[in-house]
Amino acid sequence: MGGPWVDRKHPYVWREVERYGLGVVADPAPTMAFLPTSTGFGEFSPADAFARQAELITPLFDGSRSYFERPSEPYCSSATPWAA
Question: What is the pTM (predicted TM-score) of this model?
């Protein structure tokens, strides 16, 4: 049935990949990327596209380390805003 992208950076998922001896196939490297611009979609090199994505996405995660100090342990946080 296929599966999602997995990476060794995802320790719990990767442990299951290894546990069940699942095969992993690398994606071919992209040669171009299309992203929205102020005048419609534009074609970019992968390096430029990833840089543009970083400019847009990085601000969304600003401060997240203060809430999720260890991302692979989502319930572990000393700054949980909902804790009483």
Answer: 0.45
